[in-house]
Specification:
Layout (H helix, E strand, L loop, with lengths): L6 H9 L10 H22 L8 E8 L2 H10 L3 E8 L11 E6 L10 H4 L1 H7 L7 E4 L5 E3 L6 H25 L4 H12 L1
Parallel strand pairs: 1-2, 2-3
Antiparallel strand pairs: 4-5
Length: 192
C-alpha cells in the first residue's frame, strides 16, 4: 500500500475510517466516508462565506492546480487562480482551470530559471507555522497531520519570513515600475 501502510492504517489515514472492513467490501464504505467528508467541506466553506460569492480568487505560491480543481468540484463554482508559479501544466485534467501565473507555465522543473532550481527550498521557506491540514472530519472537526518539525525549525521559518518581509519592503517599491517579462527576469536574477 502507499507509503508502507497496512490496510487498517490506510483506511484511517486516507479516508478517516476507523472500522477495518475487508478489501472486497471497502468501495461502498469508502464512498460513504467521502460523501460525508464532502458534505462537511461544503458546510465549512459555506460557513466561512465562500459560497455567497460569484467571483472567487484562489491564490497559491507554487501549484499545479489540484486544490483549485477540487474546490471547484466541491463548491460547484469556478475560481480564478493566481499563482506565483504554476507547475506541471501538461496535466490534461487541470488544463481547463482559469489561472494566471507570474512565471509563464512551462514543463516541470525547467532548470534554466532559478525559480525551478530552488523550488524545493522555496516551498519550505514559504511555509506555515502550523502542521499541514489533513481533512475536515465527518463531524466537522479540522484535522491536521502530526507536526514533524521541531520548535527550533519553526522559529527559523519565522525568522526567514521576517527577513523576507524586510527585504520586500525595501525592494518591491523599486520593482513595481518594471513591467511584464522584464520583471520576471529580474525576480529570477534576485533568486540566483
Amino acid at each position: 500500500f502507499s507509503h508502507g501502510k497496512d490496510w487498517a492504517d490506510l483506511l484511517k489515514s486516507r479516508f478517516g475510517i476507523e472500522k477495518v472492513v475487508p478489501k472486497e467490501e471497502a468501495t461502498e464504505v469508502i464512498l460513504e466516508a467521502c460523501k460525508a467528508e464532502r458534505k462537511a467541506y461544503v458546510e465549512y466553506l459555506e460557513e466561512v462565506g465562500i459560497g455567497k460569492f460569484d467571483k472567487i480568487a484562489f491564490v497559491d505560491f507554487m501549484a499545479m492546480g489540484t486544490v483549485q480543481e477540487a474546490l471547484q468540484r466541491v463548491m460547484d463554482k469556478k475560481f480564478k487562480g493566481y499563482y506565483f508559479l504554476r507547475r506541471m501544466v501538461e496535466k490534461v485534467y487541470l488544463a481547463h482551470l482559469d489561472v494566471e501565473s507570474l512565471y509563464q507555465p512551462k514543463g516541470d522543473f525547467e532548470m534554466n530559471a532559478n525559480i525551478y532550481r530552488f523550488y524545493y527550498f522555496l516551498e519550505n521557506v514559504i511555509s506555515s507555522y502550523e502542521p499541514t491540514f489533513m481533512r475536515i472530519s465527518q463531524s466537522g472537526d479540522k484535522q491536521f497531520y502530526q507536526e514533524t518539525r521541531t520548535k527550533e525549525a519553526i522559529a527559523v521559518v519565522r525568522e526567514l519570513h521576517k527577513g523576507i518581509m524586510e527585504y520586500a519592503e525595501e525592494v518591491l517599491p523599486l520593482l513595481v515600475m518594471i513591467d511584464g517579462q522584464e520583471a520576471v527576469s529580474l525576480y529570477d536574477k534576485l533568486l540566483g
